[in-house]
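Re: that chain you flagged

S.,

Sorry for the slow reply, it's been a week of failed gels. I finally had a moment to sit down with the sequence you sent. For the record, here it is as I used it:
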Amino acid sequence: EREREGGRERDRERASERAKERKRERGRETERERKRQKEREGEREREREQAKEIKRERERESKREQKRERARAIMQAR
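Prediction finished late last night. Pasting the C-alpha cells below so you have them in one place:
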C-alpha cells in the first residue's frame, strides 16, 4: 500500500513538473512571438520611411526640372 502511494506521489510530482515546463515553454514561445512581431513592425516602419524619402526625392527632382524648364523658356523668349 505504501509503495503504491509513493508511486502515485512520484507520478503527481512528475506530472506537476511537466505542467510547469509546458507553461515555461508557452512563455518562451510568447516572448519569441512578441520579438518577431516587434521586428515586423520595425521592418514596416523602415519601409514607410524609405517610401517617404523616395517621394521627397521625386518632389525635389520635379522642382529642379521645373526650374530648368522656366530657365529654358526665359532664354528662348529673349
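What I noticed first: Helices lie at 2-77.

Talk soon,
D.
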